[in-house]
């Protein structure tokens, strides 16, 4: 049945982290308005960080998101360390990468198998997938657990790890402690391959005439590694900036329907360059830096070096999981504990910027501290804020090209469009509801 | 022997009738981490899913069943008028209401707004503060409705969550520790970081339950499980001062993840000791 006008309401968007709503208006067959509403109550971290000590954001900002606390810890640490000119290298740097591997594995597998895959399979939850494919999901749960185990061994616990501090860690794990992860990583590698191969059998919808194909895909790029904590901010359209300059160019703007802010590059009130971050961007900008073993799997599964269909982001997440497992194995195999678990990071007045790659995209932090080490200003721009315009653009284009679907199916597919971005509404503040008006 | 409180709980009768109890998971102002703890029980997840009917858990499933619910797990604190009304409705629909984590049990880190200029806060974060409606305070669930059981922690301990579900399913009393983190340190034979290394630690006043995680990483406890039963906060403040911690740093340490809980206790204890 074809609608020229539409009035559709899905009260709660499910299988996303946090809570929000979505509203689409269609008039005379034209999509006239799309709003991704985020009305999760504001928690105002940037305000209460003022007056706190410069060593505290590592623990405090982790509480913005229980799904990606390591991303917050890493962006905060790198931003504040940069003010003092401290750049931990060697084993401390390796341990930070290992911790991040754990978070990517856990978060990506949660999203792939529990939040995103049910859309492709046509069921309501990952638990139902487990009933359909018990052997596969046993391995998937083990894979997810392995990500959590890495965070437990390096960070103390998977949610809000306790071992991270400015300059490094409170205690460096021993070789023996890290080696306890090796058997799990070996099994997880096979599990990740199995998950990827299953995911590759899905039918991927597409968005004809997708405007967001022309948006800019932005991520960190490091000279020799797939990116986590360091590098320059680059894009497929030639952007190439150091993190501080990039940070100064992000312009957030505030719309009435959301407690999360939107972001563009340059320009005020949404007039700047629209861009998106996340797995598609990282892959586009750094696929040449994954080991040949991961590249071979990508080739086998038909994943190109440039992928722009957001429905296929699940494949890139799978490849990033595989990469994170191999990176964790490499780090553990060559690990020698650092002489000291942390470098001293003195209080120095100044402004520091940090960008690291959260599972769902680039997470930017900026801090201004005074000579006593007290924070005088803080800015945090999560990936979901940066992706909000791309999500809304995709929704508009998807609805425009699928008006023949009935309301129920269209609403369901729209949720899937949103889930393509693995939005973390807890980060951006949090709660999605879907409503759509079709008007004559 | 660690002290525990055996909580006599009126477990829903549906279990006696051989039915799977219905479970709902609700979110208020929070980071999602405590409800994620349930999905982080990888080894037990399918067993739990086989014993309870997951009736409302939007983060995990699109399927939703209307209430009433046998058990509601509530994450997050109350920070808006809308949420203050929503929790009343959830209480009415829930036979047993369990709060999970520091936000739900103590207001969470966002309670740092309490007693401060919230309009000023809003204008720091948002270009258009007029788009934002929020209360001046972040308050625990128990300030609004009757709570049957509280699980502490930022985040909660996965093991305690499983113990709670197991007690529910098997209809036995639940034993949760009420002593300090110090007891757990001794039990796992971790050297006292305060005595051995002079590291400031909130372990002596913080409720056990995490397994004394921070001291095992040579870090002082930062109190994310909130105050133990009858803690002596003024005495610890004196000790932290002797270790060289400035007053402002002690205030920050006590006012983070269970923002108001330690401060209120400390004030009460100071008042009690003051000559009348």
Short characterization:
The complex is a heterodimer of chains A (440) and B (276). Chain A has helices at 45-49, 57-60, 69-84, 90-121, 126-132, 134-155, 175-179, 182-199, 243-249, 279-286, 292-300, 313-334, 383-401, 407-419, 425-428, and strands at residues 7-10, 21-27, 30-37, 164-165, 168-169, 216-221, 232-235, 240-241, 250-253, 262-265, 275-276, 350-358, 361-369, 375-381, 434-439. With 440 residues, chain A is an alpha+beta fold.
Q: Please tell me how large the radius of gyration of chain A is.
A: 21 Å
Principal-axis shape of chain A equals: globular
Q: Tell me the CATH architecture of the largest domain in chain B.
A: 3-Layer(aba) Sandwich
- Order of SSEs of chain B: EEHHEEHEHHEHEHHHHHH
Biggest β-sheet description of chain A: 4 strands, mixed
Which structural class best describes the helix and strand composition of chain B?
Answer: alpha/beta
* Beta strand count of chain B: 7
Please name the two chains that share the biggest interface, counting residues whose Cβ lies under 8 Å from a Cβ on the partner chain.
A-B, 68 and 61 residues
> In percent, how much strand structure appears in the residues of chain A?
15-25%
> How many β-strand runs of chain A?
15
Please state the oligomeric state of the protein chains shown.
Answer: heterodimer
Helix percent band of chain B: 25-40%
Report the CATH topology name of the largest domain in chain B: Rossmann fold
**Uncertain stretches of 5 or more adjacent residues of chain A:** 429-436
SS element count, helices of chain A? 15
Tally of helical runs of chain B: 12
Assigned CATH class of the largest domain in chain B:
Alpha Beta
* Uncertain spans of chain B: none
**Biggest beta-sheet profile of chain B:** 5 strands, parallel
């Amino acid at each position: 049945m074809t609608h020229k006008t539409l009035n559709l309401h899905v009260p709660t968007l499910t299988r996303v982290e946090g809570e929000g709503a979505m509203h689409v208006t269609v008039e005379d067959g034209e999509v006239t308005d799309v709003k991704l509403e985020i009305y999760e109550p504001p928690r105002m971290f940037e305000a209460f960080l003022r007056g706190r000590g410069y060593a505290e954001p590592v623990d405090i900002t982790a509480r913005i998101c229980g799904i990606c606390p390591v991303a917050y810890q890493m962006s905060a640490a790198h931003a504040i360390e940069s003010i003092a000119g401290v750049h931990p290298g060697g084993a401390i740097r390796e341990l930070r990468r290992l911790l991040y591997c754990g978070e990517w594995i856990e978060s990506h597998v949660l999203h792939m198998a529990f939040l995103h895959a049910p859309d492709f399979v046509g069921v309501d939850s990952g638990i139902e997938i487990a009933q359909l494919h018990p052997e596969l999901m046993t391995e998937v749960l083990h894979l997810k657990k392995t990500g959590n185990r890495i965070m437990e061994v390096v960070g103390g616990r998977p949610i809000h790890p306790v071992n991270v501090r400015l300059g490094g860690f409170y205690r460096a794990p021993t070789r023996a402690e890290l080696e306890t992860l090796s058997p799990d990583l070996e099994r997880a590698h096979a599990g990740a391959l199995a998950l990827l191969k299953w995911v590759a059998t899905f039918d991927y919808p597409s968005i004809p005439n997708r405007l967001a194909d022309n948006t800019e895909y932005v991520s960190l790029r490091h000279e020799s590694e797939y990116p986590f904590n360091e590098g320059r901010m680059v894009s497929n359209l030639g952007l190439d900036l150091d993190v501080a300059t990039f940070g100064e160019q992000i312009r957030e703007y505030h719309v009435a329907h959301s407690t999360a802010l939107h972001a563009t590059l340059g320009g005020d009130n949404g007039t700047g360059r629209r861009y998106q971050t996340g797995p598609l961007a990282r892959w586009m900008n750094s696929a040449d830096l994954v080991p040949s073993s991961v590249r071979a799997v990508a080739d086998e599964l038909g994943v190109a070096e440039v992928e722009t269909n957001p429905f296929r982001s699940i494949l890139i997440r799978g490849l990033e999981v595989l990469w994170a497992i191999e990176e964790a194995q490499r780090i553990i195999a060559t690990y020698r504990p650092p002489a000291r678990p942390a470098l001293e990071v003195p209080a120095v007045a100044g402004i520091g910027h940090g960008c690291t790659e959260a599972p769902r995209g680039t997470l930017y932090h900026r801090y201004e501290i005074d000579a006593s080490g007290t924070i005088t200003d803080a800015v945090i721009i999560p990936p979901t804020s940066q992706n909000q315009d791309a999500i809304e653009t995709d929704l508009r284009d998807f609805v425009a090209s699928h008006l023949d679907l009935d309301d129920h199916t269209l609403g369901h597919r729209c949720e899937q469009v949103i889930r393509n971005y693995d939005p973390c509404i807890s980060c951006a503040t949090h709660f999605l509801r879907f409503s759509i008006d079709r008007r004559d | 022997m660690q002290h525990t409180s055996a909580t006599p709980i009126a477990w829903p009768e549906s279990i006696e009738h051989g039915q799977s109890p219905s479970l709902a998971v609700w979110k208020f102002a929070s980071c999602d981490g405590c409800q994620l703890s349930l999905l982080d029980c990888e080894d037990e997840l399918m067993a739990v899913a086989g014993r309870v009917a997951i009736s409302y858990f939007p983060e995990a499933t699109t399927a939703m069943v209307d209430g009433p619910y046998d058990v509601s797990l509530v994450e997050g604190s109350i920070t808006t008028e809308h949420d203050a009304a929503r929790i009343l409705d959830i209480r009415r629909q829930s036979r047993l209401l369990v709060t999970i984590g520091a936000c739900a049990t103590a207001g969470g880190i966002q309670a740092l707004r309490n007693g401060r200029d919230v309009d000023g806060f809003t204008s720091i974060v948002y270009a258009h503060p007029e788009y934002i409606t929020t209360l001046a305070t972040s308050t625990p669930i128990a300030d609004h409705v009757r709570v049957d059981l509280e699980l502490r922690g930022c985040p909660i301990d996965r093991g305690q969550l499983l113990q709670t579900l197991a007690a529910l399913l098997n209809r036995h009393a639940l034993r949760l520790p009420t002593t300090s983190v110090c007891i757990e340190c001794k039990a796992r034979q971790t050297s006292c970081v305060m005595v051995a290394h002079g590291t400031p630690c909130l372990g002596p006043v913080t409720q056990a339950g995490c397994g004394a995680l921070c001291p095992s990483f040579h870090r002082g406890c930062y109190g994310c499980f909130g105050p133990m039963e009858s803690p002596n906060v003024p005495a610890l403040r004196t000790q932290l001062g002797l270790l060289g911690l400035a007053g402002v740093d002690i205030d920050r340490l006590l006012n983070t993840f269970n923002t108001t809980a330690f401060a209120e206790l400390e004030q009460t204890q100071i008042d009690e000791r003051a000559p009348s």
